[in-house]
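Hi support team,

I submitted a single chain yesterday and got back a structure, but I'm not sure I'm reading the token output correctly. Could someone confirm the output below corresponds to the sequence I sent? I've pasted both exactly as they appear in my results page.

Thanks,
R.
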Amino acid sequence: MVIVTGAAGFIGRYLVDQLVKDGFGVLATARSQAGEQYYRKLGIPFAWLDIAREEDFDSLPKRGVEGVAHIAALLSIDIARHTPKDYLLTNALGTYNVLEYCRKNNVRKIVYTMTHSDVNRAKELVITEETPRQFGATIGLGNTVPFIVSKIAASTFIEVYGKDGLIQAIMLRLPGVRGYGSRDTHYNTVFHQFIQKAMRSEAIEIWGEHKTVRDLIYVKDVTAAISKAFKSGKAHGLYNIGSGRGMTIEDEARAIVKAFSPPHNPSPLIYRPDIEEVRKRSYIWDISKAKRELGWEPRYSYYEAMTDYKTEMELGRFWTKEP
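Hi R., thanks for writing in. Yes, this is the structure output for that exact sequence:
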């Protein structure tokens, strides 16, 4: 059995689906009534778990657990809804609690999904697993320091437990993840604005010189990597999980228009070099280690990801109103 923390979240929902398809027994956990109702309806075992509460782990199985997929976390996009204490308790202390549950109950593997917080100020274009930690955060309005610090603390806990041989610790470092049902849907980000405009055949503006490139990955490629990690007996440490390619905002817009606009009336692109581009730093993941040691590589091109996104949206398989 694999326990999934954060099973009611964006990646967690897709992950449970992936693991079940791949033949794993799954126990979905979250602190979510909607999540509990969803998994009960599907007949998938569910346990209420707030990872920040040590006592909640007492209700989890003490035997027969192969590993934990640790996805639960508070996200930076919700910074206005949470206090610094919330981030430290959930992301840092919560990860420690997960590791201690594993240690005490002889759970031998943990697969942890981490953000690119530890290298968000790296000067290199291509980021490898050996790229030194180079990070920063915004201070003031939208203060992201608590989020950044809590995620780096969590990854450090995982790293130390893995180095001491207490557990087979695998960390998957993700770039921007695209997919239907993501948290940023609630905030009407540029990505979601592009989709809505494309569906209505409205013009999409491309700002600045649009030379900045970002590595982006589809959620189903992420869950496939997690499943591969559980199947590996030797994998350990940090792995970059991305597309291995850089996309400009124009590249994204063209793929979105192709996937979402009516073929007979596609959204035109309007170029506005007079408006500064929001993106400031380019980065691309080197994914050669994941290919070599996990036997994983991305399946979806960005256009294929957007086409599948549209299918998921039309099916409405995953709820999107979870707070």
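A quick pointer for reading it: The chain has one domain: 2-183+216-244+283-300. Let us know if anything else looks off.

Best,
Support desk
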